[in-house]
Amino acid sequence: MTDNKTDYFRTFCKISKAFGTTYKKEELLDIIVQSAIDSMDGKAACLFLADREADTFVSVAQKGLSENYLHANSVSARKTVEEILKTGYLAIRDATTDPRMQHHEAKKAEGIASILDVPVIVNDKLIGVLALYTGTPRDFSQDETDFLSALAEQGGMAIQNTRLL
To answer: d(Cα 126, Cα 106) in Å, to the nearest integer?
Structure first.
């Protein structure tokens, strides 16, 4: 457990340094999603922002997911947001069968087993979701959930800061 916490700390140092050296939102968000994969031994990660008019989430930064998967699988905002607002996160052990998930076959074809979704919040308003995907079934620990939530908070700050510039 100490090793994970040390990795998490190093990741936050890296992200903090990036905040001080770049103002490019895309670069900061890419660092956040790559950090989620590297620190949490994930297969892929994606930061989605809400498209309220279409009631979906749109990918703004991702690593490890095919374009076919992203374009073929719009993510319904309503169902995901309800669960995240209820519990603070959405942890799915088997994304290929869980009834809370959509597009089971596409997830199986992409090699996705488990998913952890956490909210991206700016000014007390949910604006998106940071998702971590694994290639093997996994029960996410509280430390992992807290860490991904902290990364999502960093993503929200990156978005907010670039809006202010």
So the answer is: 27
pLDDT at 53: 80
CATH number for the segment(s) 2-164: 3.30.450.40
Using H for helix, E for strand and C for coil, what is the string for the chain?
CHHHHHHHHHHHHHHHHHHHHCCCHHHHHHHHHHHHHHHHCCCEEEEEEEECCCCEEEEEEEECCCHHHHHHCCEEHHHHHHHHHHHCCEEECCCCCCCCCCCHHHHHHHCCCEEEEEEEEECCEEEEEEEEEECCCCCCCHHHHHHHHHHHHHHHHHHHHHHHC
Phi and psi dihedrals of 13, rounded to 5? Answer: -60, -45
Give the number of residues written for the chain: 165
Least confident piece of the model among 15-19, 26-30, 80-84: 15-19
Q: For 94-147, how does the pLDDT look when each residue is reduced to its tens digit (9 = 90+)?
A: 999 999 888 899 999 999 999 999 999 988 888 899 999 999 999 999 999 999
Taking the C-alpha atoms of residue 48 and residue 33, their distance in angstroms, rounded to an integer, is 11
